[in-house]
Amino acid sequence: MRVALIFPPFRHKIFTENLRTVDEEFCIAPPIILAYVAAILEKHGHNVILIDAKALKLSKEEVLKKLIVFNPDILGFRAETYYFHEALEWIRYLKANLSVPVLAGGINLTFYPREVLSRPEVDYGIIGEAIDSLPCFLSALENGDDYSRLPGVAYKDKDNRIIINPPESKMYDFDSYPYPARHLLPNNKYYSFVSQRKNFTIMLTSTGCPYGCIFCAIPFSYRTRSPKNVVDEIEACYRDFDIREIDFFDAILFMPRERALEIFRLILRRKLDIEWSARSRVDVVDERVLKEAARAGCRQIYYGIESTDQKILDSVNKMIKPEDVIEAVKLSKKYGIRTMGFFMVGNPGETMESVRRTIIFAKKLDLDFIQVSRTIPKPRTKLDDIMIRLTQRDYWRMHIKGEEIKNRLPTPWTNLNEYEKEVLTKEFYVKFYFRPRIILRRILQLRSWGELLRYVKVATKMILQKSELKYKHR
Fold it and tell me: What domains does the chain contain, in order, with CATH numbers?
């Protein structure tokens, strides 16, 4: 079959956790999950096009022209919960002009399959992992075979009734996945706010997270790739796509510890001239791991810090201490690794005073960057469960069914109102970044005029950004 996968240019939403400037400027990353889907389809003989309309800044009309030339048999979209209604806009437009069916996938299908399939724009859905179910479904569709009993397939029968086939419960070996189809992507278009080399890409070496922070939407299950499989992909990126900087999007790259050390050894052994970033908890790194990571090209680690208040850390089940943060940042800097701290405003028990204590704490740390988010009830998290229980309303499910969320969601676990949270979030950014020491450090670490322009653009937008709220109280 001829399959077209589309990644639209989604806009910032008022209900998301980030300030508008952060959503718009932090990163243009490859749609790595769609690239995995494309690789699976190509492996099974399908002809695939992947259009990253966001990175290429393409309009619906421009994408349509490409699709008319390609002449697809089916369109594929990720039905992201936050941006579901925008995806539907694109689907409606493209279906009206192409008259081909639409297949949706992604975690949103796993959470809300019936609600997604209730929309007339979506014809089919794949629930769970696509490595087996997607090729089997497309083969059946292409050959006119029966797909009514295929695991992980959602569809509408001849009477327009929604049929949901649960996915298989088995956990697939991550090494069995093909590498993402980067040959279908505009690899020279990607960057992050803090990247310094081109070409830039992102990678996954694990899925899930074995920890249970109540605000996090990452599944609790955890699965890793083997070191050789990971470094083989790094080498392919380096050789085939001129990639020189990688951001590992794992929840925690540095575990299991021996796996991480073996990845670093293989990078060094193969003499791969790459730099990379990763995410980590502060309590899983130590001096040896950080020393070897730095030798293997680690230039930056994003640490989840959230707050300096131990009661607040305990309330979100973070299971770290402020002393852990201080030690991890200190050791990272010892080996020349830049650090970014992730912080949150509006956790259970949060007050204006506790946030400002965290701002002071962040300024005392030797961090290079910060990212500050408002705490929101992400779909299917424990905070979402709290919101549903206390408000008696499942906002995300209704959003998918058709009641589009257009305002901030309730956060009944904190007494901070939305105006206070927005003010504190912006205050956090301004007080951290607009200091002579941080500005001088950014200038001294510059490697290109493009990097400087990114910093100036973001700083200007941050200063000029007005509140999105039309009210000052909840």
Answer: 2-21+28-164 (3.40.50.280), 190-375+414-464 (3.20.20.70)
